[in-house]
Amino acid sequence: MGVYRRFHFFVKQTIFFVMSEPISSTSKHTVTQKSSVSVLFAGDSGDGMQLTGTQFANTVAVYGADLNTFPNFPSEIRAPAGTISGVSGFQLQFGSKPVYTPGARFDVMVAMNAAALKANLKDLHRGGIIIACVEGFDEKNLKLSGYPEGANPLEDETLSNYIVFQIPVLQLTREALRESGLSTKEIDRCKNMFVLGVLYWLYSLPIDVTTEMLNTKFGKNSTIAEANIKAIKAGYFFGDETEMFANLGRFDISPAKQHGTYRRVTGNEACAIGLTAAAMKAGLKLFLGSYPITPATEILQTLAKFKKFGVKTFQAEDEIAGVITSIGAAYGGALAATNTSGPGLALKTEALGLAVILELPLVVINVQRGGPSTGLPTKPEQSDLMMAMYGRHGDAPMPIVSASSPVDCFYATYEAARIAVEHMTPVMCLTDGYLALSSEPWKVETGENLPEIKTGIMPERQADEPPFLPYKRDERHVRPWAIPGTKGLEHRIGGLEKQHETGNVSHDPDNHELMTRLRAEKIEKIAESIPLQKIDNGPEKGEVLVLGWGSSYGAIKTAVENALGQGLSVSHAHLRYLNPFPKNLGELMANFKKVLIPENNNGQLVHLIRDKYLFAPVSFTKVKGLPFNEMEILEKITDIIKEL
Amino acid sequence: MTDIDITQDARPALTAKDFASDQEPKWCPGCGDHAVLQQLKNVMPDLGMPPEEIVFISGIGCSSRLPYYMATYGVHGIHGRALPMASGLKTARPELSVWVATGDGDALSIGGNHFIHTLRRNLDLNVVLFNNEIYGLTKGQYSPTTKLGLRTVTSPNGVIDHPFNTAALTLGSGGTFFARAMDRDGKYLRSVLHRAAQHKGTSLVEIYQNCPIFNNSAFEAFAGQENKDERTLYVEQDMPLVFGKFRQKGIRLDGSTPVVVDLSKGDISENDLWIHNERDIFKANLLARFFDDPLTVENFLPRPFGVFYVEDRMAYEDALTAQIELAQKSGEGTLEELLKGDSAYNIK
Ligand SMILES: Cc1ncc(C[n+]2csc(CCOP(=O)(O)OP(=O)(O)O)c2C)c(N)n1
Ligand code: SF4
Ligand SMILES: [Mg+2]
């Protein structure tokens, strides 16, 4: 237990905070140490589960555990209350060791109503804990969630394999807040805080992160803040007093993180910060042209709040205007970006071809979701890789980078911006709906640590100097960036094929062939400046290499760690660069008997690898709108090794 | 264009020639685009800006070739997207003078969505819409402004799509400046372009441009020498709406209905006529509806030219700049502040 740790000492309804004392000394309950635990808060969309989960996550983060969170909410904003489609969930895993996923299955489930239980029970570990809000299992809720007439999972055999705690949350909240001065409706809304209090007690966590938040949000001593805090305390006190938990006792997870300053970010926030940091580091202004689309919108929303950093966001009339305004801004010398998801990317394709031929820097963040068409808008998928690679008319190559964790979204976006600016090209940065909304702690980065970004902006040209050639390339085939306002560099460019060096319109056949080749080579040459592919985990040589990309990082990492623990010959490499591939990728793969490629699509990276390296990797696909979990991957690794 | 601002640059005064690039225009001989290009070059020195601070953006079409012929910065983009390209540039770089060359197909068909949204946003752009009522570059298909009944390669039995009225569309979209001119009215066109440049906000100038190859004489019914005086109306601020070879006709408002009156009889004087007020949106809306085809409508109203409407409304980029300045009142955010965020916590 960390020194930092506060604990709570209860005498009836009063709480005393005592710093730095072991919590076990104050409690009659046993405290079991755990290395990690996965919790799901599930309830109706109206039950405030996102807020409850976020608060629990913030507390765990400040406490110093490592964690990974994932919200799961219904795609309808106002889905019918009490039904399965209205269930909103917030899952997190926290631990005293590094945690890479929100957990394949959860150990604890808070079920505020019958629908929440029904929708999520299959993912609860056998023997897991259920904390059920009894009032959510009344006749009406049971009916709405589709249980047969007369059946109640709290009363029949349904939950015999689990440890169930039935708490009359609503009743206890009402009792605790009887004198709060709030209406019954308002009081009932505090029931999630009661549950949060119980969970804080159960996991020996302090409540002050949440009480501070409530005081800041609603004003210290405001009726609302006080009532919510009272509900938390009531929950906490209930945990301590009730006989219910006598056998279970409490749990404690020691802090994992090293000392330092941290923040918690979601993938979308990290993308926004990454773009802004890249602009600042490059000495440019950031411009984002965008059109709202799930699950990419928070990037626009976050950047819209970054005016203090000089960021300009432009909410366009559609995705076409989103990307085109960005190209205009890029011509004007901004670090220009656009963000979207599948359907929006489809609309941007013509403009991306323009960006390729204009050879202007542009970052395109595509937060992948289930497709085709509107598909599964709120579910993650990795199925736009082919679109990123080939989704333009003509020969129009574009570099692709991908992010592997919420925090990595920062570094991937930053790297995309660096490549765009230094190589004068649009760059695709692939994330997905899972990364976008998941969060994890991030040790605060310093500006000094970030790689330099050198722009090729041309200085003024004097009248006696040779004429300016907008398409004269350097040894990397990169053309200069000549921005309006610079004397002597006036030039006209466009989507028509250009003459080598002068950039004038040219329909010459040989010139077109030359320019097509130069544009392709320019992208290939990026491989010279990116790092070699590393093995993330496991030996350099062995039986199976699990080659992943994107958000499957956590699941693969955990699976390979387990497999290595079992003595299996397996390694993990995770691709940041999907075009061009790192120079050593072929050699690296050749050191293994089999290369396993897990993907949330119908096998797209497999195509690219097979095409380039002329061998057949083992494809492992999952296209359910759900990320991989570590157990599936571990099983697959075991199967392959058995067959060898 | 913003305020006319002569830079401290000690360069000699610029002339139209200084704005001609080294590329030969590739338009057909007799194409109205040549004349418009000339007037744009003529008006450039009026801006008082050096060429490096001027940018021409266009889409695709014959008219969209224009940026190649200007010795300024320029981008020839993709079909229909000139306005968002210009909007992004202007938002990023408010100090530049940004011009847009676009066709009736480019602006009103494939780019129709951008057209209405750009107008309501009101960035300080100067939009020159070359309306030849046809798709020139793709060889003569009808456009969203082609007259009903016209036989083209894609309407062998005559056009059945009702055409757009650009003036009404502009005003309906919340545009803050609308003017109309004709390619052949050189001096007049220049003066209209000058007014457009002076307007702070999106200036939409619709130019009736003849395409002698695919839609010759599209505007002849009221613009031809023999008809022009009786069928066109040149509006001027604070002046009565008078037209005709001998200025013998006028427009009077009968309630809210404009009627053509005969001034030669002596019972109606110019004092009884509609006085043009380009600040009056209601009048501008009526003027926009002077859209009769003289060949098919009896008692038609003359086709108006000139500045219909001007409104002072904060330009989008200025509103954005103001928000940024406010956010930076206590200093610009630093990279370290960005990286730390406002919810950082310490683990001791
Ligand atoms: C996406 C796309 N669709 C279609 C075309 C073909 N196209 C090029 S220009 C044009 C119409 C041009 O008409 P307009 O804008 O009126 O210009 P004009 O040539 O008459 O000056 C069309 C249909 C294209 N270049 N791109
Ligand atoms: S086709 Fe028509 S619009 Fe195009 S250049 Fe020729 S005359 Fe001009
Ligand atoms: Mg046209």
Distance between the termini of chain A: 45 Å
Strand content bin of chain A: 15-25%
The assigned CATH architecture of the largest domain in chain B is 3-Layer(aba) Sandwich
Total of DSSP H or I helical runs spanning 4+ residues of chain A: 20
Q: Determine the strand fraction of chain B and express it as a percent band.
A: 15-25%
Q: Compute the separation of the termini of chain B in Å.
A: 57 Å
Low-confidence stretches of chain B: 1-6
Task: Describe the model.
The complex is a heterodimer of chains A (644) and B (348). In chain A, helix 17 links the parallel strand 20 (542-549) and strand 21 (570-575). Chain A contains 20 helices and 24 strands. The radius of gyration of chain A is 27 Å and the shape is globular. Chain A folds into 3 domains: 2-253, Pyruvate-ferredoxin oxidoreductase, PFOR, domain III (Pyruvate-ferredoxin Oxidoreductase, domain 3, 3-Layer(aba) Sandwich), CATH 3.40.920; 264-449, Thiamin diphosphate (ThDP)-binding fold, Pyr/PP domains (Rossmann fold), CATH 3.40.50.970; 542-643, Rossmann fold (3-Layer(aba) Sandwich). Chain B contains 11 helices and 12 strands. Chain B has 2 domains: 15-239 and 277-320, Thiamin diphosphate (ThDP)-binding fold, Pyr/PP domains (Rossmann fold), CATH 3.40.50.970; 240-275, no CATH class. Chain B has 348 residues and is α/β, with parallel strands linked by helices. In chain B, strands 2-1-3-4-6-5-11-7 form an 8-stranded mixed sheet, with helices on both faces. Chains A and B meet through helix 1, strand 11, helix 9, helix 11 and helix 12 of A and strand 1, strand 2, helix 2, helix 4 and helix 10 of B. The complex binds thiamine diphosphate, iron/sulfur cluster and magnesium ion. Thiamine diphosphate binds at residues 60-63, 79, 103-106, 130, 132, 134-138, 143 of chain B.
